[in-house]
Design brief:
This protein is mostly helical and 143 residues long. The chain is 80% helix and 0% strand. The chain is built from four helices and no strands. Helix 1 packs antiparallel against helix 4 and helix 3 packs antiparallel against helix 4. The chain is elongated and about 50 Å long. 20% of the residues are buried.
């Protein structure tokens, strides 16, 4: 795999994570605990692979800055800011949520999952949006 393939692969991993999260939510609402667990494990695996790929890519390729079109840059930066802040916040939330489920502490798992799920989904979905903006809709160059 070439270094230039990483942004697309990472966007796909974020997209898969989003699908797993949404599917897992639907399954638990329908009472399917095994399906829910499997989807959440899938989301965790996809997000972990994304994070590894993201760090590897940016360590080797540098960073890409959104410069053009200038009129859209403030919108892009607003999306990027919320995505980045919540991406940092979501890591401990996911770990605590998963730990509580693994320990069978389902009531406390449910309480924190009410926060974790929408934030994690937002981070995953905006990750795909950022990829589309940065590499497809308004292609930028590496710095």
């Amino acid at each position: 795999m070439n270094l230039s393939d990483f942004p697309l692969v990472n966007a796909c991993l974020n997209g898969l994570s989003s699908l797993c999260l949404i599917s897992g939510f639907i399954l638990i609402k329908r009472g399917n605990k095994i399906g829910h667990r499997n989807c959440m494990i899938g989301a965790l695996v996809c997000s972990t692979l994304f994070l590894a790929g993201y760090l590897y890519y940016h360590f080797h390729a540098g960073r890409t800055e959104f410069r053009q079109p200038a009129w859209f840059r403030p919108y892009y930066l607003a999306i990027l800011l919320t995505h980045t802040v919540l991406a940092v916040v979501i890591v401990p939330l996911v770990l605590v949520t998963v730990f509580r489920a693994a320990k069978g502490q389902f009531e406390s798992h449910r309480r924190i999952a009410r926060w974790t799920l929408p934030l994690w989904a937002y981070v995953s979905i905006t990750g795909v949006v950022i990829y589309l903006l940065l590499y497809q809709i308004f292609p930028q160059k590496l710095i």
